[in-house]
Request: fold
Amino acid sequence: TPNPGGAADESGQTITFVVTTDNDGLFSVLPTIDSAGNLSYTTAANANGTATLTITGTDDGTTDGSPDFQQSVETITLSVTEVNEAPSFVLGSIPTVAEDAGAQTVAGFANTFDLGGPDESNQVLSFVVTTDNDGLFAVLPAIDSNGNLTYTAAPDANGTATLTIVATDDGTTNGAADPQSSSPQTAALTITEVNDAPTFGTLGNQTVAEDAGAQTVSGFITTPNPGGAADESGQTITFVVTTDNDGLFSVLPTIDSNGTLTYTTVDDGNGTATLTITGTDDGTTNGSADPKSLTQTITLTVTEVNDAPSFIVGGNQAINEDAGAQTVANFVSINPGSSNESSQTLTFTLTTDNDTLFAVTPAIDASGTLTYTIRDDGFGVANLTINAIDNAITNGSPDPKAAPSQVVSITVNPINDVPVIISDNTFTVAENVTTVGSIEADDPEDEAVTFVLAGINADLFSVSSQGIISFSQAPDFETPRGGSNQDSNTYTFEVTARDASQGVSSAQTITVQVTNVNDIAPTGPSTAALTQPQTTIDLFSGSNPVVDLEGDDVTIVAVGSAQSGTVTINSNQKTLNYVPNDPTFVGQDTFAYTLSDGVNESIIDLTLNYVGQIISQPTTIGVPPAQVIPIADANPSLLAVIQNDRSAPGFGASAVNGLVDGIAYQRLANTDRNAVIAALANALSQTDASFNNLIGLYRLDNLTGAVRDSNGNVINPGDDGYTEVALSNAVPTFAFRVGGSSSNTLPAGTAFYAPLDGQYYAPFVIANGGNYSGTVNQAYSFFFGLLGANPGNQAATASNYNTLPVAYFSFGAANPDRAAHIKSFGGNVFGFEDLPAGVGISDYDFNDAVFSFG
Reply:
């Protein structure tokens, strides 16, 4: 109702409207009002909301004829309500995938979403996907709100499906839910074929017996399936079989298209083989050949079966009677069976139809050797039935098999049996007897037997038709004719026996032993010699000893009285002991003695030549006159020097002239005792020693320097224990300290000693021995006892020779340094050296204990 004004005169005025808004953006064409009052406008696309319109109406009136426009303003509100619009989107492409590719995701498959106006930008789209081939999928296709397509093809499925896709938003109109859906779109989804590997089962491991022949196992392959998809059902599976033990088969295993397994094992073969079975189909992928395979393994076991053994015999046997034990090696050639049975052993059982022909019945051992023994004098034919059985084990259990029996014959040919000598082969005959004894022979055929002698001593004997052996001449034990040299009382020859069929026995060696008849008395010497001071007369040695021609043991059983001495029989009854009544006796004596061989005796008169000792005079060595010391009334013949002028080992580079190794003294009965004492005193006065020594005499057993211990044992120089035994034989009352200022001082309890007549003595010196003041025996014990200063009399050294007590003897072998320590200065003057040899000392003057014998 526009009204230009209230008066009628304004009715013709025109009102012009002007419209403004406070929300121009709501409009694509702003609101206007025409003169007729019509409002027009166009809202902007997808815009909604409110806008206040201010409308100003202006007339074209006048006042007093002059323009006088008047206005009127009105406001209104214009509301544009919301309207939800249908969404839109763009589809991408779906990649082609292979069969059985698994779950698939196509990111951004639906994209470029158009939800409507800006006020719809927060809407969320929901997609609905339908297919024309739902069977192609295990999980149907779906599109999430972000446009990601997901699906999973059905196993083994391939082909094409058309997907129809509609998107629906969650928009509202005027606050009320007003979902709008897009127009449907379609897309193609393609799954290409893939050939699946075939599957199949088997009947599992197979077991067959050895030598079972060709084998066919129908239906061995179970549930063969060329592939999972229906489109593979027409495929064919081909089977290939390999083994890890081809040698077990004569025809290798195969499997045909029907799944039938066939094979043939080798003869006598057993063991196991692993069969690898590969099944391959003839399928394709995308039209191209794409064969697929499946492999399985089984074990094929061929169990052992014991084969019956066999053997070949060596044929019939023929031997002669009395051939003895028989051994026929390799009589049987054995075949225990197949190679795996080669270790089996055959046991043979033999039976005969003539057991009485044998002393030991036939037998065959595991090696095929035939043994048997024919009984003595047996002959004829025996048939042998031979059976054999093996000792096989099959699959752990005994499984013996027997070989076919075989028959052979043993023929024993009769022969003439030679005689057999059955008598003893040894005879003992006393001398002077001709008959020896009898020979006997046994002849199996009881034929007459004769004897023949042969051999070394056969010509000394004869044999009668009755077999009596005799000496042709009676034997004499003392003049034997036996043996190969005809000088023995043992006679040998051979005897053989011959029967009427000219069968000759084996030769038997006969031994005839002739024994002695004791009929000859022993003989003995009629003269003997004895040298003073010896007392033993040995009649069984020498150039004319006691003899018994019969070899009997002979003893002295009686002895008569001697004229100049006493004769006794020693305990061994082989020697006599003679002691002159006068110690000075020299000459002949006579007496009788009796020999006995246990049966016969002989009495023999003996003349004994008793002579004095022959002692050589010592060699005088050329020395300066000052060293030759005369000895008053000395008798050099009383000095026994065993070796003179001997170089001593160990005393420096040059030999020491005049050394004597082995010196002894024997006082004879006619020696002037006072002269002895004077000579010794004179000698001792010449002593010059650098340290105190002890000199003395000790008793010898003989001139070799031997001594006897308390048990009567002989100890020689150089033997262990010589020092101890020698000093135990020292003359206790004859000892001197020599050297230094007291060289002629006698120790307490000593005196000059007059040696016993006929006894051997030798000197000794103990270096450093004069430093002891006790008795001689105490000194020996103190120096050389187990707890002494020098047990065992060890050799002195360059560092201890001034103090160590060392005993030196006149026999170098007895000294600890094995050197001679005595020098001869001639004229029955000798000197001891108290320094050890071989230790680098040069003061060897041999004047440390000077002595003389008289």
